[in-house]
Amino acid sequence: MFLKEIPGHEPVKSYLKKIVSEDRVPHAFLFVGAEGHGKLSLALGFAALLQCENRVDNEACGQCRSCQKMIKNVHPDLHFAYPVISKDGFKREDTISKHFIGEWRIFLENNPWGSLHDWMLELNAVDKQANINVTECNSIIKNLGLKSFEGKYKIQIIWMAEFLGKESNRLLKLIEEPSPDTIIILIANQENLILNTIRSRCQIVSLPPFKDEDIRTYISDTFELKEEDIQELCYLANGNIRKARQLGDSSEAQYFEEMLKWFRLAYSGDPEGIDEFVNLITSKGKQYLFNFLNYCLHFLREYYLGLHTRSTDGLRLSNAEKNTLMQMQKIINGEQTARLERLLGSSISYIKRNLSLRILFMHLTLEINTILKSEAKSLIT
Predict the structure, then answer these.
(1) Is 336 helix (H, G, I), strand (E, B) or coil?
(2) Cα separation of the two ends of the chain
(3) pTM passes above 0.85
């Protein structure tokens, strides 16, 4: 991953290029921002720029020996630490990142915008607790105490640094007094979970959500979609490039039409129709259902806003969705909308667990029926 491959974030990229060109790179960074804001990709791009042997216009050349190794994430002076689970043949307290380096490189290649959940899926361990342990911290100290193999810098990327917890104090001396040409990049979703003793010694780089135009560029370059689909994905992604990628992978999904069908069936209480719908939608898998429920939640939130403003101006919805929204305002009131939001919002987390998706969606459908029937009105036809 190179900085030029990351859409947007121009102020941050310009800052990183500037400090490299002026040779005044701090020895410790903390990249912070919500999921899908590109922290890991930015760290990889920054590392590639630092190690490049032939920079061109403050960009990594992409051709030199170092760049070629950075593309494959096999540069000997680039070290990774990340939450892991127990590994066969090792005690839990002895299991560290290097034991999963093969899986990690596959993860970076296939999902550079991925989350911890995506990483756990890669390890087939979504039901297990991951962490960064004492042995990992000792390994980091040892690696960075050695001489570099071939790069100008020794670079340590610590992904999901929140998982260090109190163990991060073991790295305090290393961060305060690193060996020459050592760069440490901590990556975290929540800055407040990093110990202040560590946080205060790092250059903090905060990453905001991607702008809509940046998400649009990424979607257009990555997927072959119609203009209206691209616009809808921009709205749904809401600055989260990970979500944009997931939604783009499921671009054939007609979430809007399926949501309306679901609500109509739920209201009607037609047992055969409900059974057929639940069987069909749950057959599409967890990721599809996760995206679908997130879409429904997004629509309900925009619907609730439109309900109170009595206007569709500024709503992050397509024209078709806005037209339907105006019709539905006479049918589903604010209290019902809030109850639907709470229901779906609390149900999304269950998708990731090992439970029956069919039972979950059947339960949701019956609950939606109860909410919609709480007012004696006909659902939109």
Answers:
(1) helix
(2) 49
(3) no
